[in-house]
């Protein structure tokens, strides 16, 4: 039976497991590592507690109920943030915001007395607290394992009835009108002689539905299981399939069984989307055109996005040299805009293909006055070249590069991706400050494949400032690319060593540091049970907030079962920063934005190069304090000055406020980023009278 049906189409889904159905070794390693912890000991819930003598099957069923409950509580609960409940002050679990009702005014006010954090006695009073979000009552999700299945689909329109034959109806004695309509709707009627007339007696030959198969084969291991699926022997499913769209991983199109299958299905069109046959073309023309025009003004800072409209197989950072594979005889290459018409007549519409970006036309469309203004700007820069060179010589590590991979907030837009900033310090390494979605895609457009491979090899640390999606959704894909380049996707048999005996670490044993709030580190660990993206090769570090009395400390995020042992064993001592991180110091402070939001200052030896990064926040005096005498400040500037009220309400900064933080620090340079997507191309930057 179809997996899904509506009035237009029926869909059959086919799950294909790699040949042998065995879990690959590295996924198995990740699964075992994840399930090693005692899940039930970590969650203090009564509703889903483990009964005595529970079998593995019963445990999995209970875990399924827990997952269902979490999803239900996330999306269908009646919980409200404004709901307050009474509770004895001594019983309140911290951290929490506590309120009391003023006995005179009857108004609810914030409680300002001693807190139930164990530091001092508290009065025996009843207070008001918000009820916790039900979905947050679970500290850890139940362990799971990777799903290796690849899903393919057959989509087919419904069969069409044959044409109504009036001559047959008349000959059979069926009165014209209502009974003719009933027959066309597939219902039997009686003729004038009382005989039953069925639809097939008055309808011409019908036509089966027209269909298309969308087949995803990530690697060679999936080919044989797909070809052997029983669906291909079912006329109910296969009849009417007019085209196959093949989404193939590297090398898959050369598999003999796949080519034989295509020959067997010679009556259908075969369209292949594969890096072996499709060149690396630009997909977002408007962005590329804008960048090409900007490159006419400043080619150093606006390189044309890397692409190659000709070379196949594609050259990528993880496949610099691949054998050429001939396209199967009865196949065509997928192209952007290619359309398949199923009804009323099947056809491959090539006229809808989007033409390649005409770079010469883009260059010709740049207004002449833009060139004139650019020449004037270059002349001004040239006139100041001596002072700029002197300034450059005065800063430590002047060959350091800061590449803004995403300067927009909230969601990707046509012209700006979300937050990610790459810092490249020659001779030391590469560092990512936040890693929003598609950061890896941005890197693949900024760098040619061989250079991107070098960037990934040099990657030492990823800093995630807070847990908003526009700052961390691209983290796993970047880690996976690093894992593939540096470790060939082979998991580590040993935990990271926080006490290296030498000042340099062998790259083959190097762990990538992820420094963030513990919530991010929890997520990375749990995601490792879904996919082996390289968690075993990470150095997950939580960082404490710097205070006037105490510097920040880095602590290895431990397996939960080991968290009760001596925490000092998991502290990364500053004398090992250089070997493990390439840094001489790393300090962070909490900032006003969301729970766990932090700003950070990275210090590189020997003559201190200091890079300060705000993440998202309101202007912070604490951040200015730890960033004093910084070399470069990278600060968010979400709003222009006219929207300061929005900045306060949404806990962001304006351009003037960001520059003010730079002034408080005495920063040598400031990079503004994280602009609201309302400023599509150029943020509003105004020069105040009498100021530069």
TrEMBL record:
It catalyses: Endonucleolytic cleavage of RNA, removing extra 3' nucleotides from tRNA precursor, generating 3' termini of tRNAs. A 3'-hydroxy group is left at the tRNA terminus and a 5'-phosphoryl group is left at the trailer molecule. One of its GO terms (biological process) is mitochondrial tRNA 3'-end processing. Its cofactor is Zn(2+). InterPro entries: RibonucZ/Hydroxyglut_hydro, RNZ2-like. Its EC number is 3.1.26.11. Pfam families: Anti-Pycsar_Apyc1 (PF23023). Keywords: Endonuclease, Hydrolase, Metal-binding, Nuclease, tRNA processing, Zinc. It comes from the Eukaryota. Gene3D superfamilies: Ribonuclease Z/Hydroxyacylglutathione hydrolase-like. GO terms for molecular function: 3'-tRNA processing endoribonuclease activity; metal ion binding. It is an enzyme of class 3 (hydrolase). GO terms for cellular component: mitochondrion. Belongs to the RNase Z family. This is ribonuclease Z. The lineage of its organism: Eukaryota, Fungi, Dikarya, Ascomycota, Pezizomycotina.
């Amino acid at each position: 039976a179809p997996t899904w049906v509506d009035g237009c189409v029926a869909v059959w889904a086919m799950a294909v497991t790699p040949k042998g159905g065995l879990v690959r070794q590295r996924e198995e390693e990740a699964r075992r590592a994840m399930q090693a912890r005692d899940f039930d000991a970590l969650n203090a819930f009564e509703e889903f507690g483990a009964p005595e003598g529970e079998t593995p099957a019963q445990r999995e069923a209970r875990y399924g109920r827990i997952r269902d409950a979490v999803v239900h509580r996330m999306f269908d609960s009646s919980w409200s943030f404004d709901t307050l409940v009474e509770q004895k002050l001594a019983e309140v679990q911290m951290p929490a915001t506590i309120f009391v009702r003023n006995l005179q005014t009857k108004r609810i006010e914030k409680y300002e007395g001693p807190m139930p954090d164990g530091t001092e006695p508290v009065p025996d009073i009843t207070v008001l607290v918000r009820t916790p979000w039900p979905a947050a009552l679970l500290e850890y999700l139940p362990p799971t394992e990777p799903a290796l299945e690849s899903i393919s689909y057959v989509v087919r329109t419904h069969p069409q009835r044959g044409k109504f034959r009036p001559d047959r109806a008349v000959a059979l004695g069926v009165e014209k009108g209502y009974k003719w309509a009933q027959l066309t709707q597939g219902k039997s009627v009686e003729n004038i002689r009382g005989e039953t007339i069925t639809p097939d007696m008055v309808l011409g030959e019908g036509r089966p539905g027209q269909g298309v198969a969308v087949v995803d084969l990530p690697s060679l291991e999936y080919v044989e299981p797909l070809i052997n699926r029983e669906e291909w022997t079912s006329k109910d499913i296969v009849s009417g399939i007019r085209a196959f769209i093949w989404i193939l991983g590297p090398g898959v199109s050369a598999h003999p069984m796949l080519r034989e299958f295509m020959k067997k299905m010679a009556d259908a069109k075969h369209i292949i989307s594969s890096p072996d046959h499709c060149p690396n073309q630009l997909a977002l023309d408007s962005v590329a055109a804008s960048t090409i025009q900007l490159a006419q003004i400043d080619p150093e800072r606006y390189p044309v996005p890397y692409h190659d409209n000709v070379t196949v197989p594609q050259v990528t950072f993880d496949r610099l040299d691949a054998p050429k594979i001939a396209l199967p005889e009865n196949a065509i290459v997928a192209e952007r805009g290619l359309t398949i018409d199923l009804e009323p007549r099947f056809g491959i519409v090539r006229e809808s293909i989007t033409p390649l970006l005409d770079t010469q036309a883009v260059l010709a469309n740049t207004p002449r006055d833009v060139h004139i203004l650019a020449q004037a700007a270059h002349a001004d820069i040239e006139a100041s070249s001596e002072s700029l060179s002197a300034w450059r010589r005065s800063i430590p590590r002047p060959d350091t590069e800061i590449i803004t991979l995403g300067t927009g907030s909230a969601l990707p837009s046509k012209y700006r991706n979300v937050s990610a900033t790459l810092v490249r310090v020659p001779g030391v390494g590469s560092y990512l400050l936040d890693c929003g979605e598609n950061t890896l895609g941005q890197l693949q457009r900024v760098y040619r494949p061989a250079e991107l491979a070098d960037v990934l090899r040099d990657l030492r640390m990823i800093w995630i400032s807070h847990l908003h999606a526009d700052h961390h959704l691209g983290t796993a894909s970047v880690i996976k690319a690093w894992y593939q380049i540096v470790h060939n996707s082979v998991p580590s048999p040993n935990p990271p060593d926080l006490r290296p005996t030498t000042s340099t670490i062998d790259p083959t044993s190097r762990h990538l540091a992820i420094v963030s709030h513990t919530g991010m580190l929890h997520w990375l660990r749990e995601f490792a049970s879904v996919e082996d993206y390289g968690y075993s090769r990470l150095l997950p570090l939580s960082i404490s907030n710097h205070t006037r009395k105490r510097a920040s400390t880095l602590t290895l995020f431990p397996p939960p079962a080991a968290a009760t042992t001596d925490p000092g064993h998991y502290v990364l001592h500053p004398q090992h920063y250089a070997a493990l991180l390439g840094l001489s110091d790393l300090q962070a402070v909490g900032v006003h934005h969301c729970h766990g939001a932090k700003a950070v200052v990275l210090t590189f030896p020997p003559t201190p190069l200091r890079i300060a990064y705000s993440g998202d926040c309101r202007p912070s005096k604490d951040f200015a304090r730890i960033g004093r005498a910084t070399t470069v400040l990278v600060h968010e500037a979400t709003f222009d000055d006219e929207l300061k009220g929005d900045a306060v309400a949404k806990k962001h900064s304006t351009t003037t406020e960001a520059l003010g933080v730079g002034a408080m620090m005495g920063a040598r340079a400031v990079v503004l980023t994280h602009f609201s997507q309302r400023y599509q191309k150029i943020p509003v930057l105004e020069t105040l009278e009498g100021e530069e």
